[in-house]
Amino acid sequence: MARLLVLVLCLVPVPAIAQDALRTVAERTDYRETSRHADVTRFCEQLAKHSPLVRLTDFGTSTEGRKLHLLVLSNPPVATPEEAAKSGKPVVLAFANIHAGEVDGKEAVLALARDLAAEKSLLKKLVVLIVPNLNPDGNEKIDPKNRTSQNGPTAGVGIRANAQGFDLNRDFIKLESPEIRGLVRLFDRWGPLLVVDCHTTNGSYHQYTLTYDGPRYPAADPRLVEAGQGKILPDLAARVKKATGFNCFGYGNFSRDKTRWETYPSSPRFSTQYLALRGQVGLLSESYTYAPFADRVKASYAFVRAAFDYAAEHADELTKLTADAAKPRERAALRTKTVAEAKGATALGYVETTKDGRRVRTDTPKDYPVTLVTKCEPTLEVDMPAAYLIPPGFPAAVETLRRHGIKLEELTEAVAVEGQAYTVTEAHKAKNEFQKHALVTLEVKPGKVKQTVPVGSVVVPTAQPLGNLAAYLLEPQAEDGLAAWNFFDKGLAVGKPFP
Questions:
Q1: pTM of the full predicted structure?
Q2: Rg of the chain's alpha carbons, rounded to an integer?
Q3: pLDDT at 454 over 70
Q4: What is the rounded distance in angstroms from the CA atom of residue 285 to the CA atom of residue 274?
Q5: Distance (Å, whole) CA 183 – CA 68
Q6: Nearest 5°: CA angle at 70, between 66 and 75?
Q7: What pLDDT digit, counting tens, does each position of 131-188 carry?
Q8: What is the rounded CA–CA span in Å between residue 54 and residue 47?
Q9: What is d(CA 367, CA 349) in angstroms, rounded to the nearest whole number?
């Protein structure tokens, strides 16, 4: 019998230790725990070791020096952006744990990477990039005291901020963190058509295991907004429902009286809207904090998988859409407001009561007809110029433009030009800091000028793939541009020219 037992064990195709290594921490602990950075590293190394279709690399290091892992999956395999381009296949990306208290996406994309590598078929159509742990420093602060209203994992989660104290999903304009600088460099080098950013949200009580968002900001190409909101996201919601049975809906919350469904103010400081300004399809996945941890991971997995399947099935359409969206527009939207959609909806909630002065959810489902306050409209637009000129003395602004991947040129001799300049008529600085900045709001008056531009000035043309983004960053009245984030403060004075 002993001989027979040895023989049977030898026929097992994958050693037991490998099988365990290719299960996530959440899976191995029955969803009581989430992975630490070392767990993510081990999982990625084992996956790359056991699958010839997976390459493990990194795209930088965190503030505290931890590697920012990148899994590259393709059939046949590729290892570089150049090889991906040569393959002719679309590139898609999912990243998770930008807020390290919101760990569902981290566990989901690791499991998805493993399953795609085993399945192989989707990887014949796509190059898949997975960033499982964008905020490893915040992730290492795992504690049961973090996000205590969240329904698991019971062993605790990390914290929202990175080691600099920044909310990384507010850093896509100013690029002050190594994590987001690395991610934007990845956007630039690999050029993904579609990107999914995985989060976990709380808020009002409803029946949606996952809510979502896509391009909405009006400075982006309207065709991108229309495709994301009108076609892509409803399609993904249907796929998630079919795969899991979970209900999905557009990201937001009930108003207190349950008559409105209200979303967040759209802004390019957030990844999804930033990607839209780059001409890429950015999608937001928000699993629901009050759902069980296992369900949240399952829903996140299903949403990312649905997005990748959609990209594979609509590759030509997305390629044309993003190519058109990257072309310079005639007008640049600078300020916005969130307004009601023309058409309402029915939102799935619960009967609620008041107990001890607080709203309490019952177990009785209830449908609420609601006004969708989710549309982003421009309140200020300007004509797009051929180029911008930045005088010497603003190196941080110039370096930040470079970090975005925007092409620019420094003048080596003085040049006489005719164009438009702005005069600052009002300048208001916020009293309270946000992300270590006192945000600035400017009002300006345009006027024609003839002047000699000095040596060392920087020319930023708008006839380039990131021309729309460049215009938004450099317009002084942009509500989320470089001027708002203090990059031009030393050149600001009421009654004087804007730099």
A1: 0.95
A2: 24
A3: yes
A4: 15
A5: 9
A6: 160
A7: 999 999 999 999 999 999 999 999 999 999 999 999 999 999 999 999 999 999 999 9
A8: 7
A9: 6
